[in-house]
Write a structure and sequence with these properties.
Chain lengths: ~170, ~170
DNA sequence: GGACGATATTTGAAATGTCAAAGGTTTGGA
DNA sequence: TCCAAACCTTTGACATTTCAAATATCGTCC
């Protein structure tokens, strides 16, 4: 009994080891990373060519588009996963282009709230429509059922990662 | 949890349809992107804290570690998915730290080959071992079968994206 | 052997990114 | 009241990133 069981286990180990070495998680990570880079670069190129915008600007405007009242810079920083200092510069440039407005509310003068201007909303909604289409095109060869499955399972990965962060996590 | 499975599935579908409607690909992309950012930032932090290294440096050294003869900068650029100009600066800093060496082969003086020094190999192999462990830890809550499945299905995404890139096009 | 196109890398400008430290502002006790 | 801790944003020093233009070298065609 131990003989047959251990034999099949050994075989699995051997096959896996022979074909790919080991480190399943590492291989998944490398593939996720390269795929994400590939898509990012394509989106970046198209945003640039068709709208003269950058990806970080698009991401930031996407957050503001969903919150028409505007967002504090710290909140923007969390949602875009970009550091505070970086948000400052991004908003500065967007404001210079007339796409975003900065306001300090009366209640608390430590705070700066960023908000899309009318021009910003128009500009973003055109980009968003195109952006969605690009993604559909790029993933056109993937079975929708697989897309759903990936969405779910990557959620599991994200959740696992969130629970094993070293520094100050929680949110 | 107290409800039957089919009821909760229906509910999910309804909620999903009502709240987000369509855009499955868009939602997958946003989740992939945020998950990748999360993992990247964690690795970045640990590389910095434990080894005083940066992620791009680690990535570049990883390529050189697999090619002990060294790589031309253009090849490095392709493999790391980083632009040529960027590789120049990365290699410069790594050379200043004594981790990488630059050589111009006799045959072709246009070419620069980068190669890990002994110090670079030692340094990288310590980082690589830790790096692999971090990924295993971060993904510890994900079923290995799911990890395999993700690896395969993300491969399908990557392949689809590769087939729908806008080369040099016009408007 | 000299001009030309193809290759390979570097450079320069601008934007994005991190981190740590410094600025203001509020708030909550003593 | 007053001051120290907490909060929010900006600043400053660097590293990374992209793109486009500039350099440098090779190979070839004549």
């Amino acid at each position: 009994m131990t003989e047959s069981e251990s034999a099949s286990v050994d075989l699995e180990i051997i096959v896996q080891g022979a074909q790919e070495g080991k480190k399943l998680e590492l291989r998944l990570w490398l593939r996720m990373l390269s795929t994400t880079k590939l898509i990012s670069q394509e989106i970046r190129r198209r945003l640039r060519n068709e709208f003269g915008a950058t990806l970080p600007q698009f991401d930031l405007m996407a957050q503001l588009y969903r919150e028409r009242e505007g967002l504090r810079l710290g909140e923007l920083s969390k949602r875009t996963m970009v550091t505070n200092g970086n948000v400052t510069g991004l908003v500065e440039r967007l404001e210079a282009d007339g796409l975003v407005l900065r306001v300090t509310p009366d209640g608390d003068r430590r705070v700066t709230v960023a908000k899309l201007t009318a021009k910003g909303e128009t500009s973003f909604s055109a980009m968003a429509a195109a952006h969605e289409g690009w993604l559909r095109d790029m993933m056109a060869d993937v079975d929708p059922a697989i897309v759903s499955e990936l969405w779910r399972d990557i959620g599991a990965v994200k959740s696992s990662v969130s629970n094993h962060l070293s520094g100050t996590d929680f949110d």
